[in-house]
Amino acid sequence: MKYRVLGKTQLKVSEIAFGGAAISGEGGGYGFGDITEVESEKLLKAALERGINFFDTAPIYGFGLSEQRLGKAFKKMRDKVILVSKCGVTWHENKRVDMNNSAKVTQKMLEQSLRDLQTDYIDLYMVHWPDARVDIRETVEVLAKAQMQNKIRYIGLCNTFEEDYHKASEVAEISVFQSEFSLTQSAVESNLFPLCEKNNIGFMSWGTLDKGILTGRVIEERKFDASDCRSWAPWWNKKEVLVKVEKVKKLKAFLQDKDYDLLTSALAYNLSFKNVSSAICGVRNLGQLESLLEAHSQVEKVAVAKVKEFFL
Length: 312
Fold this sequence. Notes:
Helix content is about 35%, strand content about 20%. It has about 300 residues and is an alpha/beta fold. It has one domain (about 5-310): NADP-dependent oxidoreductase domain (TIM Barrel, Alpha-Beta Barrel). Helix 1 crosses helix 2 (about 65-75). The mean pLDDT is about 95.
């Protein structure tokens, strides 16, 4: 495993970050299929043993289940892992999802995450999504106070935009951005990367593998379990997915005589950008973990410019 410094923080993070949504499917919310607690713990510890020290989660992943499993797995080795969690995407008693960045909800979510993660501090705590009803400065004021109390080390913004970044920066230092970035979704290259470069902000990419599309595992005939958000989420637009699937088929054909595959190509694209500190990837079993790590070890072989042509 290789490591990069996360922007202006003092954190040295693995180039691959473990996506915590992958260990929470049966809990509901945002997850990708069933996985038992025993399997989750084995997987998390195997990832750490293989060099992944960066673990990303959020309360909405399994309605708290992802955080709880991370907390249990790493309780006795807290100093060996770098934990990321978030506030803002919450839910009602009937499990209806709600976006709420109010000060009251932010404080409540932070305290619950600390309990679920079984820790007295979170290395990086992020505002999960913008909330048009709440001035981002109100949210960050809560996080700045928590930072002074050593409950969080660094503050970050997910899925953000320039105006919110500048407002948030009036209250506290914003150290990290996290947004969707991949071969099929590269908008942040023009709207966030310049801010990263100018202000030395770390960047974490989610959707690195576009929820399996870029690995070739998503095909037209594939069916998803009820505990997999791809079976019901409104953003999983089948028409748009199939367009991407066709592009991936062409890329796969191009790679037939190469000594690297789709997974390696997807990772190589993200990691070829100096602004990308770490690429979040989800795995649900040891086989997928091994494939991911093997692909990571081969990224330098990839002709990134050629690969990118298929998605222009």
